[in-house]
Amino acid sequence: MNKRLFSMTCPYCDHPFEILKETVLIAGMDPGQEERIQNGTYFSHVCSRCGRLYALAYPFYYRKPGSYAITLAWDKPEKESPERVYSCATGEQFTKLFRILESQADWRVVFRLERLLKQKYNKSVVFESFDSNKSMYYFFVDSDLKAIHCKTKEK
Description:
The protein contains three helices and ten strands, in the order E-E-H-E-E-E-E-E-H-H-E-E-E.
């Protein structure tokens, strides 16, 4: 794990501050940090001046050896990474992709099903989980949990 001091500004009250954040996280090294990514709080910050919650974006690299790597606002290419590297522009994208890959779902199927559900219900759709034993994808459509059976081709 590598830490770096970042200079940031609250988007609501323009309060400048510095914050020490991890820039590299390897799977299994800090399960608490992985849980924060999973539950969507890792890239969140509460301003000490105005008290508002907002998303942070800073260079961050997560690697699950033998599976994948995800980058956020990472401007330098990784040298010879044996895993597939996914790049994200926002913490929200990073968290979504992390949850999809950690559940061992096919991200292409998740995005296709999300699009289809949004078209069908005209409501917000959020990926919840994937059950690989049953080939079931679970989504929240507004607050209703929907299950979709979707067999994917073996790689």
